[in-house]
Model the fold of this input.
Amino acid sequence: MLKMANIELIRKLHFKEGRSIRQLSKDLRLSRQTVRKALEQDEIPTYQRSKPVAHPVIDPVKNTIVRWLTDDETAPVKQRHSDAQIHRRLVKEYGFKGGESTVREWIPIYMSHLQI
Done:
């Protein structure tokens, strides 16, 4: 099975450097059918997850963070929660065991889904 990097290499060598299918087959030690198949693809395949990514540490407090962030939208700028403040409040009020970086990484993910 060809990997995405191999398909990109085949397409680059053929279209930009002008190598023939036979030459690519010989150089890369692949069958000519495999090289043709890689060249026939219109776009480079991308990885698609079969299941959404699980966040076991942050899932129990996700709704709380969302509520705080939506409340912050109407609050003055100086009174809004920072990532560090959200983490400290989670530890103090909910006994959150995750790190500050976990909260810091999840908030932009949430915000990007919010704007879609």
Remarks:
- Residues 84 and 100 are 6 Å apart (CA to CA).
- Residues 4-40 form one domain.
- The chain has two domains: 4-40, 59-114.
- The chain has a mean pLDDT of 88.
